[in-house]
Design a protein that fits this description.
The chain has 262 residues and is mostly helical. Strand 1 and strand 2 form a beta hairpin. Helix 1 runs parallel beside helix 6, helix 2 runs parallel beside helix 7 and helix 4 runs parallel beside helix 8.
Length: 262
């Protein structure tokens, strides 16, 4: 397909974000239902387990299970929001809105960043709720830890939105979307150490988890919570997130939308 000159910079991004925010206003029920997840998991699961089993061993030291589960709940909430990015891209692609946006000059990378708006907003609200509940229940979290978690979430959202954008380009209808998302997301969620420590896990579980990007994202969040920062792992994720974004943008350009069957 022939593209007009792309609008680089903030203009493309702002256009897509405004569209996504309008869509968000029309789907407020998604936000409301998503806000229940961190509350239920933290109150009825994390606190319950903490009162039953106490602390958990992580990276050579013990930390409370509620702190450990905090990261697991946060990453789980973030990852579950990725289906919204796929949903938005599939709709745009199915009804030929995506090629129109690209032909009008929307930069593909800015488009990918833009469709992360809903996951970003919802995950941010979920983080605020988790912070509020955790502080009410006695967990101590500093401002620098909150800032660190926020910045990490931004990187992770870009990474997963880019990955799932590439997957969404392979999807032609809603049945395929639901099937592929279930096949991809469910194993990744269960293979990540959301609520258990790999330090004492069986070797086979450690091997499987080490192949899961969610595992390393969890480690970064938990490292922040115990006052430690793995700069090497952070730089690695920053680099692969940028690569994933550029790759997804390139994939959007290369798809032949004229041959899509609907």
């Amino acid at each position: 397909m022939n593209f007009k000159k792309e609008s680089f910079g903030l203009s493309s991004f702002v256009i897509v974000v405004e569209t996504e925010l309008n869509a968000l206003k029309s789907n407020k029920h998604i936000v409301y239902s998503s806000l229940l997840t961190p509350i239920l998991y933290y109150v009825f699961y994390a606190i319950g387990i903490q009162s039953t089993f106490g602390d958990i061993y992580f990276h050579g030291q013990y930390m409370s299970f509620v702190s450990f589960a905090f990261a697991g709940i946060l990453i789980m909430c973030l990852f579950q929001q990725m289906d919204q990015s796929v949903y938005r891209l599939v709709i745009d692609k199915r009804w030929n809105i995506l090629p129109i946006k690209l032909e009008s000059g929307i930069n593909p990378e800015c488009y990918v960043l833009g469709i992360s708006t809903l996951p970003f907003v919802v995950t941010l609200l979920q983080l605020i709720i988790l912070l509020a509940i955790s502080m009410i229940t006695g967990m101590q979290i500093s401002l620098w830890q909150v800032i660190g978690m926020f910045l990490l979430l931004c990187i992770f959202i870009v990474f997963w939105t880019s990955i799932f954008s590439c997957i969404a380009l392979l999807i032609n209808d809603y049945k395929q979307r639901d099937f592929i998302l279930s096949v991809v997301m469910t194993p990744l969620i269960f293979a990540a150490p959301l609520f258990y420590s790999l330090d004492n896990a069986p070797m086979i579980l450690q091997v499987i988890s080490k192949c899961n990007p969610l595992t390393y994202q969890l480690e970064l969040i938990r490292d922040v919570m115990i006052g430690y920062f793995d700069w090497g792992l952070l730089v690695f994720f920053l680099i692969i997130s940028i690569i994933a974004l550029l790759f997804s943008g390139s994939a959007l350009k290369r798809v032949d939308y004229t041959n899509e069957e609907h």
